[in-house]
């Protein structure tokens, strides 16, 4: 078996909504530069993506929507389909840039399907909000949904999608809500407090796919310990029952305490622990098959580069100690670009990632979310929602 695959090329920085927009591609550039400075990518041949073809885009999107994206730069603000809004403004070469993001996740998926690797990572992916006929939440095309559809046509019939972004993975859930072959699990800030306002525990899947949609709606200010408590109380038991052949994980880092667009309270140390848990679950339940993509994350300098460096390191089995100093060369280059930013000095936030497992009786703030999700989903798998052993 070949080494884990890493998809990256600077052309992916072309997915750019312009100055002042929070979805700034500089976060990708800084993450890759940091990973290189730390030796994470030493000896790794980065895979260069190509734009996805329209035949793959229409796996997740209507042909009329794809045409609207192509025409958007010429048409301007009246194109419709969620394009030209404050969240998703039109920019030159939008179709090409968005197609390249899809192509990068498809390239990662092909490595798994063709037996070239058991793990692959693409930090430029994770555009989970895009719907079949409109853009949403900074997402033009949904690379996750396209990749899942492609995998279903290329040797897989049980795919688990786990979304750790602070926002609900609504586009992917919608794409496979009625498909029993795909299990979508999203742990996100409660939809009554954050965009997109979806992802309630009672949303469990359509007819014939009951239990295939799982939503853990976390209260604002949930810290690492609460997030990990909820994760372990819901996810492993469902994976054990579903037995996926591959794990596709959206690893947005806007759950961080410093993120300006949301209100969870995780740390870089917590993100690192999450990636390690996902790797372990892939080994335990999916024969090691793991495709990891990026997602949200809007503390562009202090958080995203460190967190996604940890993601790449975890996929490559080159785990970085959170006490590792941030390389001075990286800090100097970032300091020139962001002179007023208080830069982190280590690869962690100095936080503990210990947590108390859910016991079915305690009343921590996150326990309501755990109970609601388990009550809605666990009986559909023949599991006892009140028994922490299930």
Automatic annotation (TrEMBL):
State if Transferase is listed as a keyword: no
Name of the protein in its database record? Acetoin utilization protein AcuC
Query: Matching InterPro entries, A to Z?
Result: AcuC (IPR003085), HDACs (IPR000286), His_deacetylse_dom (IPR023801), His_deacetylse_dom_sf (IPR037138), Ureohydrolase_dom_sf (IPR023696)
Q: In which pathway does it act?
A: Ketone degradation; acetoin degradation
Domain Histone deacetylase per the UniProt entry, residue ranges = 21-314
One record GO biological process: epigenetic regulation of gene expression
Name the SUPFAM superfamilies for this protein. Arginase/deacetylase
A Pfam entry, by short name: Hist_deacetyl
Top-level division of the source organism's lineage: Bacteria
Q: PANTHER family annotated for this entry?
A: HISTONE DEACETYLASE HDAC1 (PTHR10625:SF10), HISTONE DEACETYLASE HDAC1-RELATED (PTHR10625)
Its ancestry begins with: Bacteria, Bacillati, Actinomycetota, Actinomycetes, Pseudonocardiales
Similarity-based family: Belongs to the histone deacetylase family.
Task: Answer whether the UniProt record assigns the keyword Secreted to this protein.
Answer: no
Recite the UniProt keywords alphabetically. Answer: Acetoin catabolism
One MF annotation (Gene Ontology) recorded for this entry = histone deacetylase activity
């Amino acid at each position: 078996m070949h080494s884990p695959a890493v998809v990256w090329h600077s052309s992916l920085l072309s997915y750019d909504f312009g100055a002042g927009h929070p979805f700034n591609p500089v976060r990708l550039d800084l993450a890759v530069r940091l990973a290189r400075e730390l030796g994470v990518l030493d000896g790794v041949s980065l895979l260069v993506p190509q734009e996805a073809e329209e035949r793959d885009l229409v796996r997740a999107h209507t042909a009329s929507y794809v045409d609207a994206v192509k025409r958007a730069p010429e048409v301007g603000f009246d194109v419709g389909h969620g394009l030209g809004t404050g969240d998703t403004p039109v920019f030159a070469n939008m179709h090409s840039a968005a197609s390249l993001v899809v192509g990068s996740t498809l390239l990662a998926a092909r490595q798994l399907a063709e037996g070239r690797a058991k793990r692959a990572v693409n930090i430029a992916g994770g555009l989970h909000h895009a719907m079949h006929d409109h853009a949403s939440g900074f997402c033009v095309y949904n690379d996750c949904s396209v990749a899942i559809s492609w995998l279903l046509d290329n040797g897989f019939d049980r795919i688990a999608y786990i979304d750790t972004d602070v926002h609900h993975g609504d586009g992917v859930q919608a794409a496979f809500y009625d498909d029993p072959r795909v299990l979508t699990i999203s742990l996100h800030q409660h939809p009554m407090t954050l965009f997109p306002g979806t992802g309630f525990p009672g949303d469990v899947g359509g007819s014939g796919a009951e239990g295939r949609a799982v939503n853990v709606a976390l209260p604002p200010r949930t810290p690492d310990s609460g997030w990990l408590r909820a994760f372990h109380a819901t996810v492993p038991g469902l994976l054990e029952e579903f037995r996926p052949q591959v794990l596709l994980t959206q690893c947005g880092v806007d759950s961080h305490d410093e993120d300006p667009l949301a209100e969870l309270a995780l740390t870089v140390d917590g993100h690192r622990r999450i990636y390690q848990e996902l790797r372990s679950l892939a080994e335990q339940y999916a024969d090691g098959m793991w495709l990891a993509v990026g997602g949200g994350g809007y503390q562009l300098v202090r958080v995203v580069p460190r967190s996604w460096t940890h993601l790449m390191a975890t996929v490559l089995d080159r785990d970085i100690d959170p006490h590792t100093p941030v390389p001075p060369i990286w800090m100097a280059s970032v300091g020139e670009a962001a002179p007023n930013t208080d830069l982190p000095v280590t690869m962690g936030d100095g936080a503990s990632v210990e947590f108390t497992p859910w016991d079915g009786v305690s009343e921590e703030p996150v326990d309501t979310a755990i109970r609601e999700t388990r009550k809605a989903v666990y009986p559909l798998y023949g599991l006892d929602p009140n028994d922490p052993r299930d």
